Amino acid sequence: MSKKINAVLGLILVTAFLIHIIYEIFAYLTFYYNPVFTRAIADSAMSIAVLHILFSAFIVFISHDKGMGMRYFKLNIRTLLQRISAIAIVVLLFPHLKTFSLLKESYGTNMFLFASVMTAQILFYAAILFHISVSTTNAFITLGIVSSEKARKRLDVTVSTICILLFIAASFVIVRSQLIMLSPSFAGGTV
Fold it and tell me: How far are the Cα atoms of 6, 27, 68, 103, 137 from residue 79, in angstroms, in the given order?
C-alpha cells in the first residue's frame, strides 16, 4: 500500500514540477515574474516532495524493500538510478533555492562561485528530470495502469523525450536569462 501511495505522490509531484519548470521557462523568456504563482507552485511541490521522500525512506529502510535493489543489480538498475538521482536532488536543492542571490553576490567578484552556482542549477534540473524519466513508468506500473512491456517501452520513450527537451530548454533559457539579468545593462525588464 505504501508503494501505491508513493506512486500517486510521485505523479502529483511530477505534475507540480512540470508546471513549475514550464512557468519558469516562460517567466525567464518574457521577463515576467509573478511571485504569488511562483511561490504557490514551489511550496506545493516542496510539500509533496517532503511526503514523497518520507514514503520513499519508509519503503527503503522499514518496509520489505530494504536492500532488495542491491541484491539483483541488473534487474533493479532503475531503482538504483532513482535513488542516486533522488539523493542528487536533495543535495542540489539548497543551491537551487538560493541561486539568484548567490549569483548576484558572486557576479563579477568570484567567478568560481558564479560558475559553481550556474553548474549546480543545471545539475539540479538534470537530476530532477532524470529522476522523472526513470521513475514515471515505475509509478504507472505500481498503480497497475501500465502492464505490458510494449506500453512500458512506449511510455519510457515519451517521458524521456519530454524530459530531455525540458532539460535543454530550461538549461538554455534560464542560464541565458540569469546572465542577462545580472548584466549591468539590465534595468527592470529592459535589455
Answer: 14, 34, 10, 34, 12
Q: What is the pLDDT of residues 148-167, one digit of tens each?
A: 889 999 999 999 999 999 99
The single-letter code of the amino acid at 34 is: N
Quote the pTM value. 0.83
Instruction: Provide the 3-class DSSP secondary structure of residue 187.
Output: strand
Distance CA 187, CA 27 (A): 16
Helix (H, G, I), strand (E, B) or coil at 64: coil
Q: Give strand pairing partners of 190.
A: 187
Cell 508503494 belongs to: 3
79 within 8 A of 69, measured Cβ to Cβ: yes
Burial of 50 (0-12, 13-18, 19+ CB in 10 A): exposed
Whose grid coordinates read 504557490?
Answer: 40
